[in-house]
Specification:
With 142 residues, the protein is an alpha+beta fold. It is built from three helices and six strands, in the order ααββαββββ. 30% of the residues lie in helices and 43% in strands.
Length: 142
Amino acid sequence: MGLDHPLAQAALQEVVDLHAFFETWLCGTVENTHAVFSRLENALGEEFTMVSPSGARLQRPDVIGWLRGAYGTKGKQDPFHIAVVEPELLLLRPPLIILRYIEEQAAGSIVTRRRSTAVFEALAEEGVRWLALHETWISPGS
C-alpha cells in the first residue's frame, strides 16, 4: 500500500489544498471572510494539536487564532509561495492515515523548509480531517 491508495490520496490532496489556502490567506489574495476562513476550521478536528518547528505545543484554538490574525502578512515585499514536496505514507490503518512531507516556503530568495508529520482521520462522508501535526525545521538543502 502506498500513496496510490484512495485514503492516502485524500490525505495528500488535503495537505496540498490546505497549504494552497494558507498561501492565499497569508498573501491576502482571498477574501477575509468567515465563509472563506471556515475552510481551515472545517479541516481541523476538535482535538487537533500541533508542535511547531520551534517546539511550541499548540491546540486547535491557538492555530486558528494565529492564522486568523496572519491574514495578508506575506507577499507584500517579495513573492510568497508554499510547496509540498516528498510526500510519504507512514501508516494507513483506517480510519487513521499518517503522512510525512516537506513544506517549503519561499519569500523572494529566502527559502525555509520543515519536515512535517500529519495524522488524519478518514471521514465517512469522504475526505479526511487533521488530528495532529508535528513540524521540524530542516536546512534548505536537505
